[in-house]
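About this split. The held-out portion is used to measure sequence recovery: a designer receives only the structure tokens and must propose an amino acid at every position. Recovery is the fraction of positions where the proposal matches the reference. Here is one held-out target exactly as it appears in the evaluation file.
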């Protein structure tokens, strides 16, 4: 019997799909914190979007301590977020680089900044995770984004949060 083809291009409610797929973590989560760290931007709208990602992840994951951080250019820094996690009772801090690929920031900058932050909190352990990279769900995310943006460009869908209020996801021509 062949596999049934299932289209993965239909938009999906991210928060709903995440809450249905909570992962069992291999440690006690009552003293676990997660820091979602992005690059940071001079553009306030970009920094504000990380706050929304943090809110959605915290709600979807059910983890008690989730904090935002920017690697540079904006507050809060990794050190500030790490301190907040410890103040809230964390004994293990997971630093998740909200980056697509494992470049220099993942190999050097974020581990260095995390180590500097942890040095101020003896006894608190930390882990810098891999970025998204080649995660198998990235193809689904890419397909969903393309489908939504095409629908928006065809006037069949509202703009997403990234494009709302901008001229993003509009057809252009080379003339």
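Reference sequence for scoring:
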């Amino acid at each position: 019997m062949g596999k049934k083809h299932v289209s993965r291009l239909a938009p999906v409610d991210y928060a709903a799909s995440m809450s249905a797929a909570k992962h069992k973590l291999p440690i006690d989560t009552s003293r676990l914190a997660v820091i979602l760290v992005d690059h940071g931007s001079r553009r306030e709208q970009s920094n504000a979007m990380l706050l929304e990602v943090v809110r959605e992840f915290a709600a979807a994951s059910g983890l008690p301590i989730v904090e935002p951080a920017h690697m540079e250019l904006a507050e809060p820094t990794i050190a500030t977020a790490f301190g907040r996690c410890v103040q809230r009772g964390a004994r293990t801090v997971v630093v998740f680089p909200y980056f697509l690929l494992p470049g220099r920031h993942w190999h050097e900058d974020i581990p260095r900044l995390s180590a500097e932050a942890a040095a101020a909190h003896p006894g608190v352990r930390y882990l810098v995770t891999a970025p998204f990279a080649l995660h198998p769900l990235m193809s689904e995310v890419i397909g969903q984004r393309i489908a939504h943006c095409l629908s928006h460009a065809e006037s069949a869908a509202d703009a997403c949060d990234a494009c709302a209020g901008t001229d993003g996801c509009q057809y252009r021509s080379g003339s």
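Annotator remark: Helices lie at 14-19, 44-61, 78-87, 104-119, 138-153.
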